[in-house]
Amino acid sequence: MSVTMVGNHVQSLEDRLGVRLLNRTTRKVSLTETGKYYYERSVQILGDLEEADRTAGALNTTPRGTLRVYTSSAIVRFLNPIVTEFLESYPTISLDINIGERMVDMIEDGYDLAIRTTPPPDSSLVVRKLTPWRHVLCCSPGYLENHPMPEEPEDLAVHNCLRYAYYPFGDEWRFEDAAGSEQSVKIAGNVISNSAETLRYLTEAGKGIFLAPSFVIFEDIAEGRMVRIMPKFSPVEFTINAIYPNRSHLPTKVRLFLDLLAERFAEHRKWMA
Fold first, then answer.
1. Chain Cα centroid distance, residue 62
2. What letter would DSSP give residue 189?
3. Is the pLDDT of residue 23 over 60?
4. Which of 56, 99, 112, 260 is deepest in the core (most CB within 10 A)?
């Protein structure tokens, strides 16, 4: 840059600040007291900015910091061993795990990652499929002592159906027959809840029919507390998803956890099926 151009920039800066930064004579240029302070403060700020750049780059290449994760209670049993393995592999990363059933705002609530059993309502989020899964239509043996066994989807219209609040199709339960054709039925019941465990408890108590996540109910079916009904009709397939706000410049801590999730949930796919 020429001396004249430097002079023009300094003059412009002085005009903007409303102060004199340099004392000028025909033989010498020196800093004013204000100019000295402004220079030293600017050097410090630029040094801080350079350090911030270095730190940001290091955080994105070295696994460290806190990873904030939101998930539903239904899949905690699958996450627990993955969390343990992750912490052992990456001791410089801390985990902040929140469990609930609400649909969080990833950006506003400050989450790096959500792991959900249903697709997100916000189409701008990035979704990575971990494993497919299906519901199981079930009830207790006691319920069938007082109600007829449903054989077809339309039979459910006369039963007390316990509804999960975030089922993507609302009060329309959807099934596939042996040929793969989709059937649906409008259902009704006296309970709707965002807690799968609450609905599981009510089902076991004989209060109705539950379209239950397989991973919530499998032990109850295996031990005879629940009965699978309408086996000729499979509930439509869903996926357990890892959801995050942005695909570009993904922090290392998020990428590492995502890769471990994908690897471990792949091992569950056979069991899920």
1. 22
2. -
3. yes
4. 112
Is the CATH number 3.40.190.10 carried by domain 65-131+239-272?
yes
Inter-CA distances, 164 with 130, 186, 269, Å: 22, 14, 23
Joined together, the tokens standing for residue 48 give 């801080």
Q: 3-61 architecture in CATH?
A: Orthogonal Bundle (1.10)
How many Å apart are CA 67 and CA 64, to the nearest integer?
9
Enumerate the H helices of 25-97 as residue ranges.
33-61, 76-89
pTM metric for this prediction:
0.64
**Which CATH architecture does the domain made up of 134-237 adopt?**
3-Layer(aba) Sandwich (3.40)
Separation in Å, CA 40 to CA 37, 108, 201: 5, 38, 68
For residue 184, the SS3 value is strand
Nearest to 196 by CA among 167, 227, 164, 226: 164
Which amino acid, residue 133? W
CA 18 to chain centre: 51
Rounded Cα gap, residues 259 and 201, in angstroms: 34
CATH 1.10.10.10 positions along the chain are 3-61
The Cα 14–Cα 163 span in angstroms is 69
Element (H, E) at 261: helix 252-272
Model pLDDT for residues 49-87, shown as the tens digit of each residue: 888 877 776 666 667 789 999 998 878 888 899 999 999
Name the least confident of 6-10, 25-29, 180-184, 217-221: 25-29
Residues of the chain within CATH 3.40.190.10 domain(s) are: 65-131+239-272
pLDDT above 70: residue 224: yes
Task: For residue 174, give the H/E element and its range.
Answer: strand 172-176
The CATH 3.40.190.290 domain(s) of the chain lie at: 134-237
